[in-house]
Amino acid sequence: MKNIVILGSTGSIGTQALEVVDSLGAEAGISALTANSSADLLYDQIVKYKPKLAVVMNAGAYDELRNKLRAAGIGVKLAHGMDGLLEAASMDCADVCVNALVGSVGLLPTLAAIDAGTDVALANKETIVTAGEIVMGRARARGVNIVPIDSEHSAIFQCLAGNSGNRIHRILLTASGGPFRGMSPEQLKSVTIEDALAHPNWVMGRKITIDSATLMNKGLEVIEARWLFDVDPSQIEVVVHPQSVIHSMVEFEDGAIMAQLGESDMRVSIAYALTYPRRARSDFKRLDIFSRSPLTFEPPDTTAFPCLAYAYDALRAGGTAPAVLNSANEAAVELFLSGKISFTDIPRLINEAVSSYNVRRDAKNLYSIPGMLDWRDDFSPIEEVMTPRTSRVRKEELTMSGGKSTAKTAFRVLNAGSHIDEILRADAWGRNFVHEKG
Hints:
Layout: E1 2-7, H1 12-24, E2 28-35, H2 39-49, E3 53-56, H3 59-72, E4 76-80, H4 81-89, E5 96-99, H5 107-115, E6 119-122, H6 125-142, E7 146-148, H7 151-160, E8 168-175, H8 185-188, H9 193-196, H10 206-214, H11 216-228, E9 236-240, E10 246-252, E11 257-261, H12 266-275, H13 307-317, H14 321-337, H15 345-356, E12 382-385, E13 393-396, H16 408-414, H17 420-437
Parallel strand pairs: 1-2, 1-5, 2-3, 3-4, 5-6, 6-7, 8-9
Antiparallel strand pairs: 4-12, 8-10, 10-11, 12-13
Helix pairs in contact: 1-12, 2-3, 4-5, 5-6, 6-11, 10-14, 11-13, 14-15, 14-17, 15-17
């Protein structure tokens, strides 16, 4: 049986990962579950899956969940904050850590899992976008598998299986084109939040759905592909494939192209990541190839959707540029979803942020690129919620100094490399720039 940790279990990928766990039956068990603020859903998941550890990032939701667990007499180790995420990611009993967190908050838990020798099923693209060279190098050094969950990177990963001795000529990274494919820059000025959230093929979280509409999602995936598969940016070509049947392709040096096809169902790639290197039988919908023709392809429109070009520029610039790109995008999407800026303001603000920042190109040993500026000084208790019969709560304070509680894993991760302040400034600068300009 594989013991699984799911970071972000209440989100879109996390809930689908639990559906896959259900389908695996006795082959899989849950060691830890984490959520940002969805205390009620996490409570239901704790009742069903009985993890050893549960983590809530939001302090108010943590208190709510703790009280609910106590009232129900459910015993589980409970934590909150970044310390809790790192505790979950580095559990000794875990075989696979699913990182389904949203944003650069996912980087440190990925590094913690790698340090613990735990394979990572990765859906958090920001981990690779902001620190791909470091993360992949560290995984190779520790013999840890990084198996992507994104359908496109999972497709590439599967096309490369058994082809390690064959050189890649190019990667053909497919994109649906999003809900606004074919629209002009002028037409995009009037689109609404509801329009942008109506993806034609995939059911995803709000942030990634907006990224798909701007094509920034594909830009981030280009950066991911560069590091996940160790190819030059010039070897990655984005192809708009509106039917989303071919999830991506790899062309080898002999001219042969291998493709992975399937329904638009994230559970297929999640299952592959959880059971790798084997494949488990599933009852998920099978692809009826005869009903899905024709399959069409077209180049992306980087005039109407410049975010894709900005991502290529940041990748070529290297250093801290991808971190600024990523944090500026996160901030711009937040502003758009809150109704403070228009859809076309998103690429404008991102471009202004990256163009204005003095990029550090020597940032190769950066082990911390979080957009989490306050967590290091945050007291994050780890409690064991006991049953009412014993009426006691044990607190373990993982103390470093000054009475502050910070997980030893976090301390090790943060101090494992140099130039930490530079990358923290890059991430924070991009976010602050967009909020000020927006």
